[in-house]
C-alpha cells in the first residue's frame, strides 16, 4: 500500500513538471567583469603572426569561455568588434619529472580562441 502511494506521488510530480511552463533563458551576456576574466593572454607564436596578417588573433582563454563572452571581452578590452570567434582545446599531457623519472605529472589543459576581426581592424599589444 505504501508503494502504491509513492507511485501516485511520483506520477503527480511528473505530471506537474510536464504541465509547468518553463521560462525562456535569458539571452543577455553576463557582466563585464566576468567577460574580462575569460581572456587570459594573447598568444605570440609563428602561427599567430601568420594569422594576424588575415586579421585573426589568438588568445588563451578560460575553460568556461563562450563565444558571446569572448566577443564582449574584446569590445571591453581592445575596443574592437569581432566578426567571428572559434575555439581550440588542447588536453593536458603526462610529463615525467626531470629529477625523478618515476614521478609523473600532468600539464594543464589549454583553450585557445581565434578571434577574427573586420579587414583593416588591428589590435596593438603594446
Structure summary, number of beta strands: 6
Strand fraction equals 15-25%
Indicate the CATH class of the domain at 30-116. Answer: Alpha Beta
In the CATH hierarchy, the third-tier topology of the domain at 30-116 is known as: Alpha-Beta Plaits
Q: If classified by CATH, what would the architecture of the domain at 30-116 be?
A: 2-Layer Sandwich
Please tell me what the overall shape is. flat
Query: What is the helical fraction, as a range of percent?
Result: 25-40%
Average residue pLDDT:
83
Spatial strand arrangement across the major sheet: 1-2-6-3
CATH superfamily of the domain at 30-116: RRM (RNA recognition motif) domain
Unreliable stretches covering 5 or more consecutive residues: 21-28
What is the alpha-carbon Rg in Å? Answer: 23 Å
Order of helices and strands: HHEHEHEEEE
Note the total helix count.
4
The biggest beta sheet, please? Answer: 4 strands, antiparallel
Structural class: alpha+beta
Instruction: Report the end-to-end length measured between terminal Cα atoms.
Output: 75 Å
